[in-house]
Design goal:
Length: 494
């Protein structure tokens, strides 16, 4: 028994394309959809329920193509963000996002337990579980959709596992599955939730459409934790003595920052030492690499400076003034790439990295930290995200995230002394992170320059590059936040 005929399934493409525009995980909001088609369609049948599985291809202007995987349900529940209506045999059917239907998640778990396949019109979806998978049984089990996720959708299942549905799908191996699998099987690194299984589509393309991981009971991510603790720090720092060291106290959170530096180094140590897997083999930094980094940075800088000049009139107060200063010092910014010009002479190796590393990607569970979401920057190509990079790209991402937490806290506090309080904390936190990271990094791995000064020199480039990337994002999405990366860039190039 099938729910929709091939013709009816094809007619889903247009209403689904319209529905996608309102989803927070849809990456094409700023572009016009020129056409759409149902790339493939199938139905998962479980416990007398039928769940349509749609792969929709959208074609945007300039022939940009994106594919989206959308599982659907006839009873997804109330207030489901994605919902469409279709007519069939004189009746109106309401199809909504299946991730909100516990029966669909139960069906996925049973498919994973049996390593089953689901046939599509043109291809198939296969399920694969790892040695860590255990059939939970005991259904029905409570499920809850995580509402904060940006580019995918995750569902907590019985507080024992978490299923991630990849919305935009790409041909190739997804690093969000590949990296945890390699870490769990080839190293002793335990600060990553255990991978339990995945759903893979094979058809016109071969890609991962879903993954299951261990659910780690936690207090939230480190971004949320730091913002909460820094709000307390405002009160104590405003009335007490100035913090002049890196002591581990609950308000400055510097002890946790040191833990963060240590676990980051352990991650890089593990990624650099995975053996027997060509996809994780370290590669020596070449002269061509440094030239490419410089060229990419120059291209990014030129684009961002044009945007900054065009939108400077929309900025207010200090942000407008800082924008003028930065435009006047563009040559200083361009010379930042000099900091990595000789990196290839130091024997440094590129390794696999997290790729989108910041406080929101680290969960706090007591004093233990867990690193999640290894997909990399969602706007980058899959080949780029799976390529080895300089480990300092991750380090720069976390340093910038610490500074963002401090700057956001200062804005939120809104008091005359808050800027100096949090600027000082940012410097202490970044110093604590770097010292702990350096102390815990394996020198024999050679993913860092041989000296601390050499690391700081190269890091200056990657940190400025990250701040310019942030400036581009804020100019296009949150103009009121532009002052944060502007202040950082000016400080870094001074």
């Amino acid at each position: 028994m099938t729910l929709l005929s091939p013709q009816e399934a094809d007619m889903l493409a247009e209403p689904l394309a319209d529905a996608l525009k309102g989803q927070r995980w849809f990456g094409g909001k700023a572009r016009a959809v020129r056409s759409q088609l149902m790339l493939d369609y199938g139905e998962m049948q479980y416990d007398s329920g039928i769940f349509p599985l749609a792969i929709v291809r959208l074609v945007f202007d300039q022939d940009v193509v994106e594919d989206y995987f959308i599982p659907l349900s006839l009873s997804g529940g109330d207030n489901v963000p994605l919902s469409i209506r279709i007519e069939k045999e004189g009746k109106t059917l309401v199809l909504s996002d299946a991730l909100f239907d516990a029966r669909f998640m139960e069906g996925v778990m049973h498919a994973l337990a049996g390593n089953r396949r689901m046939e599509m019109r043109k291809g198939q979806i296969s399920t694969v579980h790892t040695r860590f998978f255990a059939d939970p049984g005991g259904w029905p089990m409570q499920t809850s959709v995580i509402s904060s996720e940006q580019s995918n959708t995750s569902v907590v299942i019985g507080r024992s596992s978490i299923y991630k549905s990849y919305r935009k799908i790409e041909k190739g191996v997804n690093p969000d599955c590949e990296v945890p699998d390699a870490l769990s099987s080839s190293s002793g690194f335990s600060a990553v939730p255990k991978p339990l299984g995945r759903l893979e589509y094979t058809g016109e393309t071969k890609c991962t459409v879903g993954s299951l991981s261990e659910f780690v009971e936690n207090e939230g991510d480190c971004w949320t934790y730091f913002l909460k603790e820094l709000s307390l720090f405002t009160e104590s720092a405003a009335s007490g003595p100035e913090p002049d060291d890196r002591a581990d106290n609950e308000h400055s959170c510097l002890g946790l920052v040191s833990d963060l530096g240590r676990v980051t180094a352990q991650l890089h140590n593990a990624l650099a030492s995975i053996g027997g897997n060509e996809a994780f083999a370290p590669v020596a930094v070449s002269h061509e690499d440094t030239l490419r980094w410089a060229a990419d940075f120059s291209k990014l800088t030129d684009s961002v400076m044009r945007t900054l000049e065009a939108r400077r009139h929309l900025l207010e107060g200090a942000a407008s003034s800082m924008a003028g200063r930065l435009m006047a010092e563009k040559q200083k910014l361009s010379r930042s790439a000099d900091n990595v010009a000789d990196l290839h002479t130091l024997g440094v190796r590129r390794i696999r990295v997290h790729g989108d590393y910041h406080l929101g990607q680290v969960l706090k569970a007591g004093r233990k930290l867990y690193i999640i979401d290894f997909e990399g920057e969602p706007m980058r190509s899959l080949d780029y995200r799976r390529s080895p990079h300089c480990a300092l790209k991750d380090v720069s991402g976390m340093l910038r995230s610490l500074d963002y937490a401090a700057s956001f806290s200062a804005r939120r506090a809104g008091t005359p002394e808050s800027e100096s309080i949090f600027s000082r904390w940012s410097r202490l936190a970044q110093g604590a992170f770097l010292e702990s990271y350096w102390a815990s990094s394996g020198r024999d791995m050679q993913f860092l320059p041989p000296t601390f000064d050499g690391m700081e020199k190269a890091l200056a480039f990657f940190t400025i590059e990250k701040a310019v990337y942030e400036l581009d994002y804020e100019l296009n999405n949150r103009p009121s936040w532009v002052g944060i990366p502007l202040a950082a860039i000016l400080s870094l190039i001074s």
